[in-house]
Design a protein that fits this description.
Distance between the termini of chain B: 47 Å
Shape of chain B: globular
Largest sheet of chain B: 7 strands, mixed
CATH topology of the largest domain in chain A: Ubiquitin-like (UB roll)
CATH topology of the domain at 416-459 and 618-678 and 686-767 in chain B: Aldehyde Oxidoreductase, domain 4
Number of domains of chain A: 2
Helix content of chain A: 25-40%
CATH architecture of the domain at 416-459 and 618-678 and 686-767 in chain B: 2-Layer Sandwich
Largest interface: A-B, 69 and 89 residues
Radius of gyration of chain A: 18 Å
CATH class of the largest domain in chain A: Alpha Beta
Strand content of chain B: 25-35%
Strand order of the largest sheet of chain A: 2-1-5-3-4
Radius of gyration of chain B: 27 Å
Oligomer: heterodimer
Shape of chain A: globular
Number of strands of chain B: 31
Number of helices of chain A: 5
CATH superfamily of the domain at 416-459 and 618-678 and 686-767 in chain B: Aldehyde oxidase/xanthine dehydrogenase, molybdopterin binding domain
Structural class of chain A: alpha+beta
Largest sheet of chain A: 5 strands, mixed
Structural class of chain B: alpha+beta
CATH superfamily of the largest domain in chain A: Beta-grasp domain
Chain lengths: 181, 767
């Protein structure tokens, strides 16, 4: 018996309207339901996946008004008036395509369960940098966990996406990360 | 392996770097994974009439069950079925080695993940609500929580034949030589205690899947698993149906690492599906996964090791206790592999006696996990070598060089072994690592250090266990070369390796090949474990490809009118005189496809020695050099670099090889630094990934993998499986580096930053 999700009674449904991948949607859901549940129950979205449901693993990462967020932490009542993008809606987006190609060419995945979440985070990071952010692209995946790869392929993919002339990474605690080998 | 380089001259060392990966990467399967289009076992919501299942878990780590009342739950809205122990028509037990785990407990619960009942309902919420309405009365029993005391406490399993009716599930001793005499001749003897953690697999896709009834009493399972055929056998026994009525399809699975080797949700899902006549999905959330899933066996060991004044290791003794938790699962096999590695298989030692005791406790359940006991043992063994070197006042590498086995030596259990390179070469290559020449810095806050360790790893189930598997090749109606194996795909790149084998053997292109895995209706390839898949696939394909090509060539000759001699396989079809004369599609349409199929099953390669079960025949090696930075303020350890040298045969698919080594190494780093599912009174102290910390991108080191491919041309087993090799030597390499940085040797994992700080302070006071 899980002690964590005891819902004493089925809560009332509310009509929640928001924009999903460019299209207006209305869903009848519990107000305290999560965006992740809404996406999964539609059956149309398979890229956002439950990994931890506490916002730690990033497997359910989506773009909310362009910012990468774990959809398990977005409540249904927060959605009206906002725009949600998933990988399904990004598959013609040039930023996503460059991320996809970098991940594929560097073989940055194994089981692939976490990968769409990483891709969403990287797309958000690339867009932020284009808008003038100097934050390192590696920071964008700080909220994503991968258990298969050891992040080697992701490191190479991020190098590829960061392009030449990117400033050297330095650790904020003062230790220089090792030079590339 | 020529005589010249058996002394340690390194040749044929290839770095698997980004260029090698980009050149080799097969994009065939990757885009659909990145775009989220690959359907996992838990992505089956489109099934019509799908119900959601949920499992009631024990409220106690150890208790008698005096009452289970499902009547309130049955009346809940949306509920279609509630089942408990007396609803199991077949065997209410499962387990890979010993079937001692109840599908549903009826008299007693032995850990907090034990299942008591299950519900199927229209929605997941309704199923969970119904669980809350099941009334269970418990009579708590004393909790067996300390493995070292378990044998003195009342037995968890009273009906089983454990040793003397105690909690001792298994004990085993491996020995050779006159140990007392050998110790009496030692100049240096070191004795230490080591402890390794209860690591969690933490695959990203938690346990789950769907059971679909066929309307005729049978069930199709689509669930994350590692051994479809074996699962089908166990499930048939549980469901009380014939083996043929159970089908398992296991692909695709979002990570496994051993944690899906045992049955998970399948028994409850299958029973609910039969009861309701509808498909039932069960997908554990992370909380339930943490609470119920397999873990790595924690091991406490006392090791005593001695060498003579010249550094030759003479005597080695180990006494280990492995906590297997409430049920056996693969515990006895883990104990065997632990002891195998505890003999220090890379080194010549005159006499040893390594013994282990595997005990039941109420601390969850432990089972298969990448490394399978081996890496726990290697941590202690490699640490002991460093201690001996210090005792002698020589470099750790020198001590290793003195004692490493040479090609032609027997294995540590006197079995014949087959390496692909001399251990001395692996050591020499590791000593060439550029990490050694990085200056060690002490910035006041961060102290850096570089250390290394070595490890050996065998392929296959070993120890005389039955180990065989088969595969099949055919031409599909669509004209693709269809290769079937029973192994599961959970991302380990076995598909790409199979495609490479076939393309190389046949001369076709990648898109001509279709790989079908993980179906219990297809060939039985044995479990997807023990780093055995690649070896098996290579062996089976080597045996069936020539036969299949002869059959296809014969058909092509009849259809095309060209002579058999001169017909060649090529990209897209058959060629004669450099011209394509038939596409594979045309060929498929022109003949009886059954006549163009070949299959074979073979035994996994084992040592040709007769007699007693012995250690593994196909042996791999790794040396891992670790560079760490230790924070003097917090005691936190950062692993900045890992440099591995592997000797594991030829590389078939470079991205897969690199990914296995890198991924396993970071998993080993997690075990060394942060990961431990601790228990209190038998209850796990972490319940999700915000408390149980696995490495993130920013924790992961820069890694380099150098492959020593010195595989002899005539080696009949030139390809080895590297799924577990990368984890073997990481932990002791990290603790060796910590010692270089701080002067403190850590013998208990994961490294506790507080303890490390205390030791560092003591160390500095002594200076």
């Amino acid at each position: 018996m899980s002690d964590h999700y005891q819902v004493p009674e089925t809560p009332a449904q509310e009509n929640i309207s928001f924009e999903l991948n460019g299209a207006a949607v209305i869903r009848s859901v519990p107000g305290a339901g999560t965006l992740l549940d809404i996406l999964r129950e539609s059956g149309q979205i398979t890229s956002a996946r439950a990994g931890c449901r506490v916002g730690r693993c990033g497997a359910c990462q989506v773009l909310l008004d362009g910012r990468a967020v774990p959809s398990c932490l977005v409540m249904a009542w927060q959605l009206p008036g906002h725009h949600v993008e998933t990988v399904e809606g990004l598959n013609k987006d040039p930023d996503f395509l460059s991320v996809r190609d970098a991940l594929a060419s560097e073989s940055a995945l194994q089981c692939g369960y976490c990968t769409p979440g990483f891709a969403v985070s990287l797309v958000a990071g690339i867009r932020q940098r284009r808008q003038g952010s100097t934050v390192d692209l590696t920071e964008s995946v700080a909220g994503n966990l991968c258990r298969c790869t050891g992040y080697g392929g992701l490191r190479r993919a991020i190098d590829q996406l960061s392009g030449p002339g990117c400033p050297d990474e330095t650790d904020d605690r003062g230790v220089s990360l090792s030079e590339k080998q | 392996m020529t005589p010249e380089n058996s002394q340690g001259d390194v040749r044929n060392l290839v770095t698997l770097d980004g260029d090698a990966i980009r050149k080799a990467t097969s994009g065939m399967d990757l885009a659909q994974r990145i775009e989220g289009r690959l359907a996992y076992a838990t992505d089956q919501r489109h099934l019509s009439g799908l119900l959601y299942g949920a499992i009631l878990r024990s409220a106690c780590a150890h208790a008698l069950i005096t009452r289970v009342d499902i009547s309130r739950a049955l009346a809940m809205p949306g509920v279609h079925a509630v089942i408990k122990a007396d609803d199991v028509p077949g065997l209410n037990r499962f387990g890979i080695v010993i079937r001692d785990q109840p599908v549903f407990c009826d008299e007693r619960v032995r850990y907090e993940g034990d299942a008591i009942a299950a519900v199927a309902a229209d929605t997941p919420e309704q199923a969970r609500d119904a669980l809350n309405a099941i009334d269970v009365d418990y009579q708590p029993l004393p909790v067996v929580s300390d493995a070292t005391l378990a044998e003195q406490q009342p037995a968890l399993h009273d009906s089983r034949e454990t040793h003397g009716g105690s909690n001792l599930l298994a004990r085993e001793t491996l020995e050779r030589g006159d140990l007392d005499d050998a110790f009496s001749r030692c100049a240096v003897i070191v004795e230490h205690h080591y402890q390794t953690p209860r690591q969690m697999h933490a695959f990203m896709e938690t346990e789950g899947g769907v059971a679909i009834p066929d309307g005729k009493g049978g069930v199709l399972f689509r669930a994350g698993c590692q051994s479809g055929h074996r699962d089908a056998e166990q499930l048939a026994d549980i469901l009380g149906v014939a083996r043929e009525q159970v089908t398992v399809e296991s692909t695709a699975t979002g990570g496994a690492f051993g944690g899906k080797d045992e049955l998970t949700v399948q028994p409850a899902a299958g029973l609910l599906a039969l009861k309701t006549g509808r498909p039932v999905m069960i997908h554990l959330d992370r909380f339930e996964s943490c609470r119920t899933g397999m873990k790595r066996h924690p091991v406490a060991v006392k090791m005593t090791t001695g060498c003579d004044a010249g550094g030759r290791m003479l005597a080695h003794k180990a006494e280990a206790i492995l906590d297997t938790g409430a049920y056996a699962s693969l515990g006895p096999a883990v104990l065997e592999n632990y002891l195998d590695h505890a003999t220090a298989p890379l080194y010549r030692i005159e006499a040893y006696r390594v013994s282990g005791r595997l005990v039941y406790t109420n601390n969850g359940v432990c089972g298969a996990f990448r490394g399978f006991g081996g890496n726990q043992a290697t941590f202690a063994v490699e640490s002991q070598l460093d201690e001996l070197a210090r005792g002698l006042g020589i470099e750790p590498a020198t001590l290793r060089r003195i004692n490493l086995r040479s090609p032609g030596d027997a294995g540590s259990r006197n079995q014949t072994v087959r390496w692909t390179a001399p251990p001395a070469c692996v050591l020499a290559a590791a000593l060439d690592s550029p990490l050694w020449s990085r200056p060690d810095t002490d910035t006041g806050r961060w102290m850096t250090g570089t250390g290394m360790a070595m490890g050996a790893q065998g392929n296959g189930l070993g120890d005389g266990l039955p180990d065989s598997g088969g595969g099949r090749i055919s031409l599909s109606p669509a004209g693709r070369i269809c290769v079937e194996f029973g192994i599961s795909d959970y991302g380990q790149n076995i598909v790409e390796s199979i495609i490479r084998f076939v393309c190389k053997g046949v001369g076709c292109r990648e898109t001509d090949v279709e790989v079908v895995l993980g179906r219990s209706r297809g060939p039985d390839s044995g479990p997807t474990s023990a780093s055995r898949s690649t070896v098996l696939v290579h062996g089976v394909l080597a045996s069936i490809l020539p036969r299949w090509m002869d059959a296809v060539r014969g058909h092509a000759a009849r259809v095309s009118g060209h002579p058999v001699k001169g017909l060649e396989f090529g990209p897209g079809g058959m060629f004669f005189d450099g011209q394509q004369v038939l596409s594979y599609g045309e060929l498929a349409g022109s003949a009886n496809l059954d006549e163009m199929a070949a299959s074979a099953s073979q035994n996994f390669p084992v040592a040709p020695d007769s007699g007693q079960p012995v250690g593994r025949y196909l042996q791999l090696q790794i040396a891992t050099v670790a560079r760490v930075a230790v924070d003097r303020l917090t005691g936190r350890v950062r692993v900045t670099d890992l440099h591995h040298v592997t000797a594991a045969g030829r590389v078939i698919y470079p991205p897969g090889y690199l990914g296995q080594i890198e991924g396993a190494a970071v998993m080993g780093q997690g075990m060394a630094l942060t990961e431990d599912m601790t228990t209190h009174d038998g209850c796990y102290q972490a319940d999700n990934l915000d408390q149980y910390l696995i490495p993130t991108f920013h924790d992961a080191p820069v890694q380099r993998v150098d492959v020593l491919d010195d595989t002899p041309e005539d080696d009949p087993y030139p390809v080895r499986g590297v799924g577990e090799l990368g984890i073997e030597a990481v932990a002791p390499a990290i603790t060796a580096a910590i010692e270089v940085a701080t002067g403190v040797r850590v013998r208990r994992l994961p490294v506790d930053p507080g303890d490390l700080l205390v030791e560092m302070a003591a160390q500095e006071q002594n200076l």
